[in-house]
């Protein structure tokens, strides 16, 4: 009995335990709010981003400097408290759900390591910031991306043999049509992939050529997967199968495309790591 009590006291005395508890609670709160908002795309993006950030922080936990001061801790608590109050008072869920992960992450980083230690979490904070990019981009930029998505989806349909017509952001097939709106622009998926690309570059440092290539590949994978999803939904609408359309548009089907995008990008990263290891071995032998 005494041994268990002593272990509990030791565990509570360690700041890592409290930081882990607070961080887990904030992640659970955010994912719950997104789930209640029935925003499947954001839920998938948030889940993957939180999981990646948590894994990276956990991997380097022994090398983190956990020294903060009163001002930093107070400011961090203020950020978290304001975000929680805002969450509790929300009658509807909007852009705040996209920004809250960065606010939570910044607040927790200030509590853990203060202003001086923020540089330890730059990559993780940027990754969480990418979740809010869809709400920070101006409307003209969103429209340009949406238009490009519509063109790409129409090209995919034309290439595989469909009689497709494109007018602006409207894709027409003989038996139906879809209008590519902001939610199907692919900005959310592209932002997610760019955030993962930054995490990869932090964990596995690359030469400057690959520092440029990796984000390009990540954004391209996200964009093309979303264009393929829009093309699929156009075919489904033409076949008048609205149940399937709802599944791929706002149901679990949209989440599946996010998972496939991450897997494709993961394979690229795996290949890149193997290529670098092979090159390093060859240079040692020579």
UniProtKB/TrEMBL annotation:
**InterPro entries annotated for this entry?**
Exo/Archaeosortase_dom (IPR026392), Exosortase (IPR019127), Exosortase_cyanobac (IPR022505)
Q: Which GO terms describe its cellular component?
A: plasma membrane
Which UniProt keyword terms apply here? Cell membrane, Hydrolase, Membrane, Protease, Transmembrane, Transmembrane helix
Q: Give the domain of life.
A: Bacteria
- Broad class of the protein's primary localization: membrane
Topologically, how does it sit relative to the membrane? Multi-pass membrane protein
What are its GO biological-process terms?
proteolysis
Q: Which GO terms describe its molecular function?
A: peptidase activity
Where does this polypeptide localize?
Answer: Cell membrane
Q: Where are the transmembrane segments?
A: 16-35, 42-58, 70-88, 95-115, 121-143, 155-173, 185-205, 212-235, 255-273
Q: NCBIfam families from the entry?
A: cyanoexo_CrtA (TIGR03763), exo_archaeo (TIGR04178)
Q: What is this protein called?
A: Exosortase
Natural source organism: Fischerella thermalis JSC-11
């Amino acid at each position: 009995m005494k041994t268990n009590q002593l272990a509990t006291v030791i565990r509570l005395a360690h700041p890592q335990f409290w930081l882990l508890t607070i961080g887990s609670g904030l992640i659970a709160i955010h994912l719950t709010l997104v789930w209640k908002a029935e925003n499947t795309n954001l839920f998938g993006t948030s889940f993957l981003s939180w999981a990646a950030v948590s894994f990276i922080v956990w991997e380097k936990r022994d090398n983190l400097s956990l020294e903060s001061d009163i001002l930093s801790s107070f400011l961090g608590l203020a950020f978290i408290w304001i975000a929680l109050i805002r969450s509790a008072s929300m009658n509807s869920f909007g852009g705040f759900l996209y920004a809250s992960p960065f606010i939570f992450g910044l607040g927790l980083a200030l509590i853990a390591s203060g202003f001086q230690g923020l540089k330890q979490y730059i990559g993780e904070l940027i990754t969480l910031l990418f979740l809010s990019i869809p709400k920070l981009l101006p409307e003209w930029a969103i429209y340009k991306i949406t238009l490009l998505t519509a063109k790409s989806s129409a090209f995919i349909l034309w290439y595989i043999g469909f009689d497709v017509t494109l007018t602006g952001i409207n894709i027409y097939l003989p038996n139906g049509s879809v209008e590519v709106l902001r939610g199907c622009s692919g900005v959310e998926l592209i932002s997610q992939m760019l955030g993962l690309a930054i995490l990869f570059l932090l964990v596995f440092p690359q030469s400057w050529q690959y520092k440029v290539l990796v984000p390009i590949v990540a954004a391209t994978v996200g964009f093309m997967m979303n264009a393929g999803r829009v093309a699929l939904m156009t075919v489904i609408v033409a076949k008048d199968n609205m149940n399937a359309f709802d599944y791929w548009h706002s149901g679990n089907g949209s989440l599946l495309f996010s998972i496939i995008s991450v897997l494709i990008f993961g394979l690229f990263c795996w290949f890149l790591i193997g290529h670098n290891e092979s090159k390093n071995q060859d240079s040692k032998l020579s």
